[in-house]
Amino acid sequence: MGQDRKVTAIAHRGARKFAPENTIPAFEKAIQMGLDYVEIDVRATKDGHLVLSHDSAVDRTSDRTGRIAEMTLAEVKRVDAGAKFSKEFSGTRVPNLAETLELCRGRIRIYLDLKEAPVRSVIKVLDQHGMVPETVVYSGIDVLMEIKRLRPDLAVMPGPGKLLCLPGAAALIARSLPAEVVDSNLVDWTKERVEEVHRAGAKVFVDTLGAKDNREGMVEAIEMGVDGIDTDHPDVLLEVLRERGLR
Prior knowledge:
By secondary structure, this protein is of the alpha/beta class. It has nine helices and nine strands. The radius of gyration is 18 Å and the shape is globular. The protein starts with 7 loop residues before the first strand and ends with a helix.
């Protein structure tokens, strides 16, 4: 491995192993740990505000029920997003995108998984906080094409998934958008596909989520030559990267 090589460390939904996912405490923990990016999930409320939630509903992660698209910002803000995680985090609120960017600006970069929200609104908030250069957006191809049409300098990241088994597909997608990064689960990648994307001028981020989200999976990803790893175990990832001289 080249001495100058670094592998980007990404905290999936923040450091959710240590604090409730997609919340300010989870992002603050990721910053304290020295991660490079936090992965966040963005959705729009009924009244058009951008809030953070992986799921379309608040049921799994909070003390209430309801679909975010059918709730107002005020209703989402009444949700306790921490009590289910532990008593220590009782009273933690669902952050909006602006609050998250304010916390992260100058401290950690943003991997923005755009779940369900207007592209123009997302770009506007990123611009207001000066975070376009520090953000990469993951979403469907149609959404990423719209982003590139409206704001060509905002980095985008498609996730081809099983299409990666088709030689040339990842490179075609990377060049066509164009995409700065290509991202899919580790199980979909091979060393050959990673090299193909690199030749197309893009970086490769992988998530090790699931059965490979462990030391062995992280080492496998590193040996494939990836540029970044998204994990629920950022402490393990940082340890592996340090051991291999990649931090």
